[in-house]
Structure formats: C-alpha cells, structure tokens
Design a protein that fits this description.
By secondary structure, the protein is α/β, with parallel strands linked by helices. About 35% of the residues lie in helices and about 25% in strands. The chain has helices spanning about 20-35, 50-65, 90-95, 100-110, 145-155, 160-175, 195-200, 200-210, 230-240, 260-265, 285-300, 310-320, 340-345, and strands at about 10-20, 40-45, 45-50, 70-80, 80-90, 110-120, 125-135, 145, 180-185, 215-220, 245-250, 270, 300-305, 325. It has an 8-stranded mixed β-barrel, surrounded by 4 helices. A hairpin with a 2-residue loop joins β4 (about 70-80) and β5. α6 runs parallel beside α8.
C-alpha cells in the first residue's frame, strides 16, 4: 500500500448535515431533487448524506434560505464501503474549500480541452510534433489558469483524476496530426502510484484512437516535487516497455540536475526556458546550454530547446546543436494544429 494513493487510502466522500427540524430536512430534500437524485441518500429523519459535488452545487442556493452558520457539519471519511470516522468541521471551513471543488465538475462536464503547440526540426523545416497543453474552460468560454487548475486539483485530492483526464485528452487530440508527427503529452509523476494499474486507461486511449505507442512522448513535469527517484524510474520503465517514449522537462538545475538526467535516461531532454531567454546576450546561459547538449548527445537522446521567442535565440541554439525547437517564435498554443507553412513563414 502506498501512502496517499487514492486507490488504497480512505478519502473524504461528503458531509453529514444535522438539522433541528424534520420540516427543514424536507425543504432541503426538495431543493436537492431539483439538481439530482443520485448523489445523496437520507440517513434518518434528522440527517442527510450529501456527495461533495452536489453539496457544493447547492451550497450557494441553500445559503440564501437557511442560516447554515448555525448548522453542524461532519466530514465523513470512508475506507472501502464503511464510514471510518466523522470529523466535525465548521461551516466556514466548508465554504473555504468551495473554490477548489470546481475541478471535479470541470472533469465531469468535459470542459478540459487541448491546445497544440508546434515542435519543429529547424534544419528540415518541418513540424515534427506538438505538445498537448491542457486548458479548462469556464461556462462563459474563458480560460482558467492552468496553474490554478492543477494547484486546486492537488489541494482537493483530484490530481490523479485530472492528470489522467489530460493524458487521455492529449492522446485523443493526436488524431488531428499526421501519422509521422509526435504527440507530446504531459504527466505528473506524483499522481501515479502503481503504473501497471494507473496507466491502463492511458494504454487503452492509445489503442482505441489508433495511435502507435511509439508516436507518444510522455513529458515528465513537476519533477521538483518528486522525492522518490526509484518510483519515477519505475513509471518511466513501464512506459518504455510498452513502446512509448519519454521526455524530461525543464532540465538545467534543481532536481533536474545532470546526475538525475543520467539516472533517468530520457529519449528527449528539454532545456529549461530560463537558459533560453536572451541566450544570445548571456555567455553563462550559452555555456549551460552547451553542457546539457553534450551530455544529451552522449546518451543518444535528443536535445530540445523550448521557450524560444526570437530569431536570435533560435539561431544561437541551432549553432549549439538544438535542431528540435519550440516556443512562441514558431507558434503559440492554439485549439487546432497549425500547418507547416504557418510555422515557417
């Protein structure tokens, strides 16, 4: 059993709400019936079990009619099918959690969409693939900040579901590409506990969408949060055994130091954008980029420079040897893949 694994450990399932009069309970039940009859069940004449999503859907509605500040809330923790314990929480603690619970609704309502950013081979002047970038949409069609989305998912223990959804969506979006183009799909290693189990839906998505595993490059992000290198290696080896490739993102410093690079043996190494910005004006950045390129080449891996925004940056990196490049200079993320002529104007 792994610590914090959502498949193994108990999770918060909802809230028990005590009311002082049966008539109030009936009013609450009537309001619930307007939303759903599947997410709740009565416990007895004075208590009601409410699922997380439904409770927060209705919270603002109830607040208009009832003085919830005076109610007692109990957080129910379930292990398997049994309620293990009930923790008392205040109304204000419940309300404080509300802003992050929309992550679950976004997943349920299929509001995760993929944007495409081109990855090019400079010498061949070809778009060799796209990085699939997850974006969530508000009901009005505006974008939600990816940082807010993923941090909220982490705070509400929804990171596993969100990361899985994004992997599947990224693979599905690859159907819009040519058979020769690569599909770069981000994944967060701390959201994967048992790769043989957690990645079954990813395998299924590739098969059902007719995409050869060798076209998919899983890009490791947030490696600075990884404190178990052996577990990460286990995930990456599973990918490789199944015919996928994998890339290390933001290589340059911190956790992604050069010893880690050697230990993980990625197929693609993405130079941290902080060493790309204004590289033509900074000798130290150029020296670091050259060092990473030499090490990458010695491992028979491919060096990719991301975050390129100018012709000068592209030129210097090409001189070093970074034939694979990515950044606004070649194209911003868009909801449809760009043509090769649009990338190389």
């Amino acid at each position: 059993m792994l610590d914090n694994c959502p498949l193994c450990m108990g999770t918060v399932k909802g809230y028990m709400i005590e009311v002082d009069r049966p008539s109030v309970l009936q009013e609450v039940i009537q309001s619930l019936s307007q939303h759903s009859q599947k997410e709740w069940q009565p416990v007895n004449h004075s208590q009601l079990w409410v699922g997380n999503r439904l409770f927060f859907d209705c919270l603002s509605f109830w607040s208009e009619y009832y003085s919830l500040e005076n109610w007692d809330f109990y957080e129910a923790v379930k292990l398997g099918s049994e309620i293990e314990k009930m923790n008392h929480v205040t109304f204000h603690e419940v309300v404080a959690r509300r802003p992050v619970l929309w992550v679950d609704e976004i997943i349920q309502r299929d509001q995760i969409h993929m944007m495409y950013q081109p990855i090019v081979h400079v010498e061949h002047k070809q778009t060799i693939g796209y990085e699939m970038l997850a974006r969530a949409l508000k009901p009005d069609g505006s974008l939600i900040s990816p940082a807010l989305l993923f941090e909220s998912a982490r705070n509400q223990s929804e990171l596993f579901r969100l990361d899985r959804t994004c992997r599947i969506k990224g693979i599905q979006a690859g159907q819009q590409l040519s058979q020769e183009q690569l599909i770069f799909v981000n994944f967060i290693p701390t959201s994967i506990y048992i790769p043989e189990h957690c990645l079954q839906t990813t395998m299924k998505a590739a098969y059902e969408n007719g995409i050869d595993n060798s076209r998919i490059v899983f890009e490791v992000v947030e490696t600075e949060r990884v404190d178990n290198l052996e577990h990460l290696k286990r995930i990456l080896l599973y990918y490789r055994r199944e015919g996928f490739r994998y890339a290390l993102d933001d290589v340059g410093e911190g956790f992604n130091d050069l010893s880690t690079l050697l230990a993980l043996e990625p197929d693609v190494v993405k130079l941290d954008r902080k060493f790309v910005k204004n590289i033509h004006l900074d000798k130290e950045k150029r020296d670091r980029a050259e060092k990473i390129y030499r090490l990458t080449s010695s491992m028979n891996a491919i060096a990719l420079a991301e975050g390129i925004e100018s012709a000068e940056e592209a030129r210097i990196l090409r001189e070093i040897g970074y034939d694979w490049q990515q950044g606004y200079y070649y194209g911003k993320p868009s909801f449809s893949p760009s043509s090769n002529s649009e990338v190389f104007l």
